[in-house]
Fold this protein.
Amino acid sequence: MHQILRFGSLLLRNTYKTVHCRFSSSFVKMMQAVCVDVPGGPENLLLRAVPRPQPKDGEILIKVHAAALNRADLLQRRGLYPPPAGESDILGLEVAGTVDTLGPGLKREWKPDDRVMALLGGGGYAEYVSVPEELLMPVPLNLTLCQAAAIPESWLTAFQLLVFIAEVKEGEVVLVHAGASGVGTAAVQLVRLFGAVPIVTAGSPEKLRAAEKLGAAAGFNYKEESFAEGVRDFTGGKGANVILDCIGGCNWEQNVSSLAVDGRWVLYGTMGGRTVEGDLLGKLLSKRGHLLSSLLRSRSLQYKSDLVTAFSHRALPYFSDQPSSLRPVIDSTFRLEDIADAHRHMEANRNMGKIVMNVIPTE
């Protein structure tokens, strides 16, 4: 009888240990993430526990320290910009953090705790995200992870528009709309790095001053003046060789007027509307203008990999110079649980530079 009781006690202890281990294992595989169950306003952003992703072949699991906001996040939250097939439904297109878990089949020598930043198709508003190794970049030594989170999406977008799409040349004049935005502040600095001349539009004197401190040669307040006249005056009537345009419809006449003969007008957003009324084609034809368009999120992994490689060789070293030639511009930081306030801040167009979420408060 005594042996039976001992066996029963041992069985109960083993059962408890099994259940406890299963519970602990299940808990470890969960993480906090921002979800959107119903498209709508910032109040629809929900922070809750979801399964932690597991790195697939050729992927690395990142422990996210910081993530940055982008206009695409606002559109996705409203149900207007769904993620590409196979990408996470969780918002967030760029993060910085440390290597947590190495997936199988990696080609490079990554190590646990390496400081990395990554371009994402989605999934950044979370404590962990799994990323193909081709989309990872090492964080420059003199940058915090908070600063690094402001680089991948915005800087790669600006680099792509200038180098891959517009093929900007030394000495050319580049008009950058929204010159104090995340992409705008990156573009101004990259244009200078490439030996071209950046000029900008923005909606306030403060934003124009911020862009000019980064290297903009001239700035025009689109709320108070015709930027087309400003561009013509600045260029002696020749116009801008390249226009980086995230506004779209409402600016089309001034854009064509601002464009130099054989100039390249690069459209990458439609914040000012998608429809055009008037003689766009005729006026563009008279300038022999090139109307180009580009999105980054929907590109193939190979394209993004080539972009990351080109950026890493041509631009990334300049973040480590002393003093550094390039720097991410941080407008403000929020906690992950305050993500709704961060979205409201961006929607109000109050930011100059990037809005960053500190997922780990110490960063």
